[in-house]
Each structure stands twice: as C-alpha cells, then as structure tokens.
Amino acid sequence: MERTLIIIKPDAVQRGLCGDILGRFERRGLRIIGMKFMQISKDLAERHYAVHEGKPFHAGLIEYIISSPVAVIALEGTDAVAAARVTIGATNPSAAAAGTIRGDLALEVGFNLVHGSDSVENGREEVNRFFAAEELQHWTRAIDRWIFE
Ligand code: DAT
Ligand code: MG
C-alpha cells in the first residue's frame, strides 16, 4: 500500500480550509495513518525542499512554509501518491483543473495551499521525515473492503 505526505500549507490554515482539503482526500478513499498540527522549523523546511535549493523561488518557499502552523497528514492507499497529486492539481493554481484543490481554491503558485509527495519513494521518505514510527497508526477501516480492491 503506497504512502503519501500531505501538508496543508500556511495559507490554507489561515484561510480556514483545513476541513475542506482534508475532506477531499477522505472522500477520495485514502486512509489517514498520521495527522498533526505543527510549526515547521527552518531546518525541517530546508530538508523537505532540498530538491529546490538554488532555484530563484527557494528562499521565499522556505519563508512561506514556516510562516504559520501547518497540518501534516500521512495517507495510505492504492496508488496514493498519484491519486493525491490528481486531487491537488497542477503546481500553478491558475493552470490547475477545476475540481482539484488548487483549481477550485487558489490562484497563485506562491499560495497553492497544499503539498503532496511526487513519487512513491518520496512518499515513503517524507512520511518518515515528518512522523515518528509511533505517530503512525496501522489500522483498517470497516469501509476498506468497499474502497480497496
Ligand atoms: P508541487 O508543490 O506541485 O509538488 P514543486 O515540488 O515543483 O511543486 O514545487 C514546490 C513548491 O515550490 C510549489 O508548491 C510552489 C513553489 N514553486 C514551484 N515552482 C515555482 C515557480 N516557478 N515559482 C514560484 N514558486 C514555485
Ligand atoms: Mg513537489
């Protein structure tokens, strides 16, 4: 079963969109295995966005992600990484399809509301970066047999 890390970013928290965003992943069928409300440290932000080091938007991206508390959620499910990315929509919200989180609720790339892991390997790594083993629940839902084939 794949894992993906979702971050409900500072702008989404400030705008009161946590419930709407989390609800979309829940309704999609993904299973929550970890969830917390936290302030990301500069060090953790640098590690999370290390792949973007050297890019012109890197400094602003770090400042943004540490600027306010975030909700961090670990999800599990069939093709969880790709499914979550489709639910999130394109990186630049002005180009994101209607029906996606970014396409419905955002306009600017610097305020695009949500992070989702971009590969199966990164999903596993990012969940482990943000959650200690004891913070993750190994459980099944009664409804799982109607969602997972
Ligand atoms: P995504 O968040 O869709 O995975 P990404 O990993 O390429 O996108 O980039 C991480 C974040 O960095 C993205 O959510 C917003 C910001 N970003 C990406 N490209 C940008 C750009 N060209 N200008 C400004 N910010 C950008
Ligand atoms: Mg990314």
Brief overview:
By secondary structure, this protein is an alpha+beta fold. It has helices at residues 10-14, 18-28, 42-48, 58-65, 80-88, 101-105, 120-130; strands at 2-8, 31-38, 70-77, 114-116.
The total of beta strands comes to 4
Sheet having the most strands: 4 strands, antiparallel
Give the terminus-to-terminus CA distance: 12 Å
Walk across the major sheet and give the strand order: 2-3-1-4
Radius of gyration: 15 Å
The topology string of helices and strands comes to EHHEHHEHHEH
Shape: globular
Q: What bound compounds does this protein have?
A: 2'-deoxyadenosine-5'-diphosphate, magnesium ion
Percent of residues in helical segments?
Answer: 25-40%
Mean pLDDT: 98
Query: Helix/strand-derived class?
Result: alpha+beta
Number of continuous helical runs: 7
Strand content: 15-25%
Low-pLDDT ranges = none
What does this protein structure show overall?
With 149 residues, this protein is an alpha+beta fold. The chain contains seven helices and four strands. Strands 2-3-1-4 form a four-stranded antiparallel sheet, sandwiched between helices. The longest helix has 11 residues. The protein is globular, with a radius of gyration of 15 Å. 32% of the residues are buried. It binds 2'-deoxyadenosine-5'-diphosphate and magnesium ion. 2'-deoxyadenosine-5'-diphosphate binds next to loops.
